[in-house]
Amino acid sequence: MNATSERVLKALSRLEAAPAKPANDPVRRRGIELVQVLVRYFHIERDELRFRDWFSIVTEQDRRTINVGRAKPVRYLGPNGERWAGCGKTPRWVREVEEEGGDREDYRIF
Question: Which residues form the DNA-binding protein H-NS-like C-terminal domain (predicted)?
Answer without folding.
Answer: 80-109
